[in-house]
Design goal:
With 298 residues, this protein is α+β, with helices and mostly antiparallel strands. Helix content is 34%, strand content 31%. The strands form two sheets. It has a seven-stranded mixed beta sheet with strand order 1-2-3-4-14-6-5. Strands 8-9-10-11-12-7-13 form a seven-stranded mixed beta sheet, sandwiched between helices. The two termini are 24 Å apart.
Length: 298
């Protein structure tokens, strides 16, 4: 709602995920991080013309033998297949994108009845069935270390199966201590944790951060956890809930279908471009394909 979250000052990328702001102006932000000898740059824009982007690419050396650069235009549209910046080709990434193809956003200013009514009929039925079966959700602002450890324990098997990195415990603890984290844990009638979700809260809005569930979670547990998290965020006075990026809009993509079923408005992102040094292209392409496949699995 309004300015895209990635363009907000002190957003999660630079606040917690190791990126540093090299340049920021109205509707444009350039971030950088280093991993060994590699330098990654991320230029996020929503409005600047090609000349401005080219000037930034030259001034901040977005092309180099050890520099991997991504340019994201958040304005909806396809864009050309190739963008020339600093006299080098930046190829459009139609798959395996850094920011995905878009996100779903819920307007938490709406009445609860309206929000619940926006959830698909099938998922609402599952939600009610889960409640009838004794499933409940505990939402916590500023979750404790023990609660964060419980979520990480739930997350670990999924991370191992999908070759995903574990969320950083110290980062989550810091977020919680600053009042920037809200958890929702779905429990069965015996108290066993079925689903755990975390939302990052900043700028009056919330962003889905991490989620995990047990392999045998009953139907409706996931949707109930999200619904109660929505209610908790709304009660906290937040105005929007960003459900996080989707890799595709393909009907075969289960994560896309689930997020769509929650009733939010789809916010499409525009083209994304990448310049990768020739020596790094095979390894980077393999890594991106693997992450893309994992993202589609949800």
């Amino acid at each position: 709602m309004g300015t895209p979250l990635a363009l907000r000052a002190d957003w999660i990328l630079e606040r917690y995920l190791g990126w540093h702001v090299r340049f920021a102006a109205d509707q444009v932000k350039l971030l950088e991080r280093r991993r060994g000898v590699l330098r990654q740059t991320l230029l996020v824009a929503c409005g600047p013309d090609h000349g401005q982007l080219d000037a930034l690419a030259r001034a901040h050396r977005l092309v180099g033998a050890t520099t991997l650069s991504t340019v994201v235009d958040l304005r909806p549209g396809d864009g050309p297949e190739l963008l020339r910046l600093a006299d080098r080709p930046f190829l459009r990434a139609d798959r395996e994108r850094f920011f995905g193809v878009g996100t779903f956003v819920l307007d938490l200013r709406e009445d609860e009845a309206v929000l619940f009514g926006r959830i698909s009929t099938r998922e609402r039925s599952k939600c009610r069935q889960a409640e009838r079966n004794g499933v409940r959700v505990a939402c916590t602002a500023k979750p404790s270390a023990a609660e964060i450890d419980a979520l990480l324990a739930l997350y670990a098997p999924m991370a191992q199966d999908r070759r995903l990195p574990l969320p950083q415990r110290e980062q989550l603890l810091t977020m919680a201590s600053r009042g920037e984290l809200l958890s929702a844990v779905c429990l069965d009638s015996t108290g066993r944790a079925l689903v755990a979700n975390l939302a990052f809260c900043a700028h009056g809005e919330a962003y889905f951060l991490h989620g995990a569930k047990v392999a045998d979670a009953p139907a409706g547990a996931g949707i109930l956890a999200q619904w109660e998290l929505m209610r908790a965020l709304k009660a906290r006075g937040l105005v929007a809930y960003d459900l996080g990026l989707v890799a595709t809009c393909d009907e075969a993509d289960g994560l896309f279908r689930f997020k769509r079923s929650l009733g939010g408005s789809f916010v499409p992102y525009g083209p994304e471009y990448r310049h990768t040094p020739a020596w790094l292209r095979p390894a980077y392409a393999l890594w991106r394909r693997r992450r893309f496949a994992e993202a589609r699995r949800g």
